[in-house]
Amino acid sequence: MAKTWVLDTQTKGTGAHVVPLEDVLRKPGSEPVPGFGFRRPEPRPDAPAQPPEAHRFKVVDLMTREALAEGVDARTAVAVLEQVRSIVDVSIFVWEPNTERWRMLTFGESRLLWENRGRSAEPG
Q1: What is residue 50's DSSP assignment?
Q2: What residues does each domain of the chain span?
Q3: What 3-state DSSP class applies to 79?
Q4: What is the pLDDT of residue 101?
Q5: Cβ(81)–Cβ(89) under 8 Å?
Q6: What pLDDT does residue 107 have?
Q7: Residue 113: partners with Cβ closer than 8 Å, 6 or more residues away
């Protein structure tokens, strides 16, 4: 019986080559590579779902470098900002528990707190 030949274009070069049809029909990966295999990932232990810790803020006066508030929640930080004349008069920091350091907020992040001033007196 005659072999059927086909044009195999799955090469990585610039051309293709003619191969027997049986070689093309063979499924890739049907012959395992000796010594190679995937190990099954171990199941992760179910960690109890705990709510994230609330952010703690520090507000520092730029002129005197005096801490106006330290370790306070967002509501208290906004209340402290109500006493400040301008957003550029203070530096606002947030506590990062992973690095155990105070991280200075970007201007955009500081502005989010600044824009909430005066809302605590609003109804609802």
Answers
A1: -
A2: 57-114
A3: helix
A4: 96
A5: no
A6: 95
A7: 57, 74, 77, 78, 81, 92, 105
Q: What is the DSSP letter of 56?
A: -
Tokens standing for residue 18: 């003619």
Side chain identity, residue 30: S
**Confidence bin at 60 (pLDDT 50/70/90):** very high
63: its two tokens: 């002129």
What percent of the chain is predicted at pLDDT more than 70? 85
> 3-class DSSP state for residue 21?
helix
Judged by DSSP in three states, 22 sits in: helix
Which amino acid belongs to residue 82? E
Burial class (CB in 10 A: 0-12, 13-18, 19+), 90: buried
Give the helix, strand, coil percentages of the chain, each rounded to 5: 20, 25, 55
pLDDT tens-digit map of 27-59:
665 566 677 778 888 888 887 778 888 999 999
- pTM of the shown model: 0.58
**Minimal CA–CA distance to 56: which of 102, 108, 98?**
102
